[in-house]
Write a structure and sequence with these properties.
The protein is of the alpha/beta class. It folds into 2 domains: 129 residues, Rhodanese-like domain (Oxidized Rhodanese, domain 1), CATH 3.40.250.10; 224 residues, Rossmann fold (3-Layer(aba) Sandwich). It contains 17 helices and 10 strands. The strands form 3 sheets. A 5-stranded parallel beta sheet has the order 5-6-4-9-10, sandwiched between helices. A hairpin with a 2-residue loop joins strand 7 and strand 8. It is globular and about 65 Å long.
C-alpha cells in the first residue's frame, strides 16, 4: 500500500470497528490497545521475557527456537484454538503484533496450516497507533469545536448527550473532571484514552459537522491528559455558557458525586462500600486543601464528616448539601469565573439547558 492508501485503510478500519486480534503479550496490551481489539497473545509475559533475554544473549535464531519450544504441544493447541474461535465469529478480523512482523507472521502461518486464512494489519500496532497520533494533529487544526461551559453542577455532561455531535471527554476518561471526580472504575491508560478519543472524533468528523461540542475541561481529566493540540484547539474555541440556578446545581452534585458514587462503591463491595465512599470524598477534599486555606478546609472537613456519618446512619444525602454549597461558594465558582475571564474566549450564547439545546440545534443545522 501507498502511505495514502494506508491512511484510508486505517480510517475505515477504525470507523467500521473491524475486529482485531492483538498477538502481543498481555503486558503490552494493558499499556495500550484499540477499542476493537482482543488480546489473544502468541506468548505470555513470562515467555516473551525469556525469548527477549535469549535474543540479547544468543541472537535471533536461538530466540526463535526458544519461542517455538515454549509455545508448543498443548500450549500451542490451546492458543490456535482461541484464535480459530474468535475468527469463526469475526470472519472479517485482522491480525497484528507490534510492527506486523514475526509474531503475527507465525500466528498467521499456524492458522493457515489449520485451514484458516486471516490478513495481517500492515505495519502492526505501531502503524495504527501512529495514524491515531497523526489524526490528533489533523483534527485539532481542521475540525471546529464549541465548548459548553458553566459552573460545577450545571449538568454539562447531560447537555452533551442532548447536543449532538458531541464528545464526552469525562466519559472516555471515566472521571468527572474535578478534584471530586474520582470514580470507582479504574481510568483507562493514557494510550487507551487517546485511542478512544480520536476514534470518537473521527466518527463524528466524517460527516463534516459545522462544529462538535465538548465540555470545558482542564488539560488533565483525572490521570488522563487531553492531547495538547486538541486542548489548545478547545481553548481557542467559542463558548456556550449554560446558566443553572445554584440550588439545582447542588441537587445535581448530590446526585452525581454523592449518591451515584456510594452506589458505585456498594456495587463493588457491599460490605465495605461506605468506607470506600468516605475515603474517596475525604481524599478529594484533601487535594484542594492548600487552595482552600487551612481554616476553610477544617470547616468543610468537619461538615463533610458529619454528612458521611448521617449517610451511614440513615442512608440519606441531604446533609451533604451544606459542605457542597460551601465549596461552591468559596472555591469552585470564584475559580471558574477567574478561569473563564482569563481565557479570553468568546461567549456566543448563554441560557438555561433547554435554551442551549434549542440554540445548538439551530446552530448546527444552519
Amino acid at each position: 500500500m501507498t502511505e495514502r492508501a494506508d491512511m484510508q485503510f486505517f480510517q475505515s478500519l477504525l470507523l467500521d470497528a473491524v475486529p482485531l486480534i492483538d498477538t502481543r503479550s498481555p503486558g503490552e496490551f494493558a499499556r495500550g490497545a484499540f477499542p476493537c481489539a482482543v488480546n489473544l497473545p502468541l506468548m505470555s509475559d513470562i515467555e516473551r521475557a525469556k525469548v527477549g533475554t535469549c535474543y540479547k544473549q544468543h541472537g535471533q535464531e536461538q530466540a526463535i527456537a526458544l519461542g517455538h519450544e515454549l509455545v508448543s504441544g498443548i500450549v500451542k493447541a490451546q492458543r490456535v484454538h482461541a484464535w480459530q474461535s474468535f475468527i469463526s465469529t469475526h470472519p472479517d478480523a485482522y491480525l497484528y503484533c507490534w510492527r506486523g512482523g514475526l509474531r503475527s507472521q507465525i500466528v498467521q502461518q499456524w492458522l493457515k496450516e489449520e485451514g484458516v486464512d486471516i490478513p495481517r494489519l500492515p505495519g502492526g500496532y505501531k502503524a495504527l497507533r501512529n495514524f491515531i497520533l497523526q489524526q490528533v494533529e489533523v483534527l485539532s487544526s481542521s475540525q471546529p469545536f464549541v465548548v459548553i461551559a458553566g459552573y460545577t453542577g450545571s449538568g454539562k455532561t447531560e447537555l452533551l448527550a442532548r447536543c449532538r455531535p458531541s464528545i464526552d471527554l469525562e466519559g472516555l476518561a471515566r472521571h468527572r473532571g474535578s478534584a471530586f471526580g474520582t470514580r470507582v472504575a479504574t481510568q483507562p491508560s493514557q494510550i487507551n484514552f487517546e485511542n478512544s478519543l480520536v476514534i470518537d472524533l473521527l466518527c463524528k468528523a466524517q460527516y463534516q459537522p459545522r462544529a462538535i461540542m465538548v465540555e470545558d475541561e482542564g488539560g488533565f481529566i483525572g490521570s488522563c491528559n487531553v492531547p495538547l493540540s486538541l486542548h489548545n484547539a478547545f481553548q481557542h474555541s467559542d463558548v456556550v455558557l449554560v446558566d443553572v440556578p445554584f440550588e439545582q446545581r447542588v441537587d445535581t452534585i448530590v446526585k452525581l458525586y454523592i449518591e451515584d458514587l456510594l452506589n458505585e462503591c456498594n456495587a463493588e463491595d457491599p460490605e465495605q462500600g461506605i468506607k470506600k465512599f468516605a475515603s474517596l470524598l475525604s481524599n478529594s477534599l484533601a487535594r484542594i486543601r492548600k487552595r482552600l486555606g487551612n481554616e476553610a478546609y477544617q470547616q468543610v472537613e468537619k461538615t463533610l464528616k458529619y454528612a458521611i456519618g448521617k449517610t451511614q446512619e440513615t442512608g440519606q444525602f441531604d446533609a451533604h448539601r451544606e459542605w457542597i454549597a460551601e465549596l461552591l461558594t468559596r472555591y469552585y465558582d470564584p475559580m471558574y469565573d477567574y478561569q473563564l475571564e482569563r481565557s479570553g474566549r468568546t461567549v456566543i450564547f448563554k441560557g438555561d439547558k433547554d435554551a442551549v439545546c434549542d440554540w445548538w440545534h439551530d446552530y448546527i443545522n444552519r
